């Protein structure tokens, strides 16, 4: 089974973020996302009026291509955050940088965005969902009670309520991937999941560290797929 990024994702909208010559998980290596953000981020969180980071009133903030909305009770930890047009940041959301939120992304009440986060357009980070050091392609959604750490969610991926993407093995040893008849030592101790375009997970599923799901795969509710590479359209019960 291939480990090329193009076997998992179409419509890569971020120039220079992914390396065609590297395995799909290379983007999760230390500082790759952060270095890309440092070069490409145009921070605008300083335009939000806060009291020591706390948003105290509803605001519609103008950005180059339109406006975004932010509600009282949201918390902005630092200014290394770019929020695009059409975004909605609801009350109780916590945002840390560096973070890039693409157009029409919704950060719902109680969401915790810890930094190193990049979204394309029309994404959802929902209620009681924690996301750190992860990438969301267009239309990817982690809408309810999810944890997403050190992961990549392809186009229109949907995580059922309570989905947890574990990113650190209990043994705290680096992730090893078996693919293409080889053993790949990733060197990564923190490696959640790579979810190809159109992957769906059922409620309360748990993805073990180093899980790589091909396009259109489905994980049944309350399932816990083992780490490894799964071909496109896999059904995991």
Please give the structural blueprint.
Elements lengths: L31 H9 L18 E5 L2 E5 L4 E2 L4 E3 L4 E2 L4 E2 L3 E3 L4 E2 L4 E2 L3 E3 L4 E4 L2 E3 L2 E2 L4 E4 L2 E3 L2 E2 L4 E2 L4 E2 L10 E4 L2 E4 L7 E3 L4 E2 L4 E2 L3 E3 L4 E2 L8 E3 L4 E2 L1
Parallel strand pairs: 2-5, 3-6, 4-7, 5-8, 6-9, 7-10, 8-11, 9-12, 10-13, 11-14, 12-15, 13-16, 14-17, 15-18, 16-21, 17-22, 18-23, 21-24, 22-25, 24-26, 25-27
Antiparallel strand pairs: 1-2, 19-20
How would you explain this protein's 3D organization?
This protein has 237 residues and is mostly beta strands. The chain has one helix at 32-40; strands spanning 59-63, 66-70, 75-76, 81-83, 88-89, 94-95, 99-101, 106-107, 112-113, 117-119, 124-127, 130-132, 135-136, 141-144, 147-149, 152-153, 158-159, 164-165, 176-179, 182-185, 193-195, 200-201, 206-207, 211-213, 218-219, 228-230, 235-236. It has one domain (5-236): UDP N-Acetylglucosamine Acyltransferase, domain 1 (3 Solenoid), CATH 2.160.10.10. The longest helix is centred in the N-terminal third of the chain and has 9 residues, at 32-40. The radius of gyration is 17 Å and the shape is globular. The model has no long low-confidence stretch (mean pLDDT 96).
Under CATH, the homologous superfamily reads Hexapeptide repeat proteins
Domains (count): 1
**What is the first-to-last residue Cα distance?**
20 Å
- State the CATH class: Mainly Beta
Largest sheet: 10 strands, mixed
Q: What's the total number of strands?
A: 27
Q: Which structural class is indicated by helix and strand composition? A: mainly beta
List SSEs in N-to-C order.
HEEEEEEEEEEEEEEEEEEEEEEEEEEE
Sum up the overall morphology in one term.
Answer: globular
Write down the Rg: 17 Å
């Amino acid at each position: 089974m291939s480990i090329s990024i193009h076997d998992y994702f179409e419509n890569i909208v971020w120039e220079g973020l992914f390396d065609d010559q590297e395995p799909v998980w290379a983007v999760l290596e230390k500082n790759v996302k952060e270095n890309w953000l440092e070069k490409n981020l145009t921070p605008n969180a300083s335009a939000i009026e806060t009291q020591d980071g706390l948003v105290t009133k509803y605001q519609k903030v103008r950005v180059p291509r339109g406006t975004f909305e932010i509600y009282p009770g949201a918390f902005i930890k630092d200014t290394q955050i770019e929020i695009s047009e059409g975004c909605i940041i609801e009350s109780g959301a916590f945002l840390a940088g560096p973070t890039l939120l693409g157009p029409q992304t919704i950060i719902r009440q109680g969401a915790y965005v810890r930094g190193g986060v990049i979204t394309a357009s029309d994404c959802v980070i929902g209620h009681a969902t924690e996301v750190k050091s992860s990438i969301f392609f267009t239309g990817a959604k982690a809408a309810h009670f999810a944890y997403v750490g050190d992961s990549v969610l392809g186009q229109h991926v949907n995580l059922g309520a309570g989905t947890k993407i574990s990113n650190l093995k209990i043994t705290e040893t680096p992730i090893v991937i078996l693919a293409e008849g080889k053993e790949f030592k990733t060197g990564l101790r923190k490696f959640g999941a790579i979810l190809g375009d159109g992957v769906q997970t059922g409620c309360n599923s748990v993805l073990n560290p180093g899980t790589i799901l091909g396009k259109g795969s489905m994980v049944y509710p309350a399932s816990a797929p083992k780490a490894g590479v799964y071909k496109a359209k896999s059904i995991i019960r």
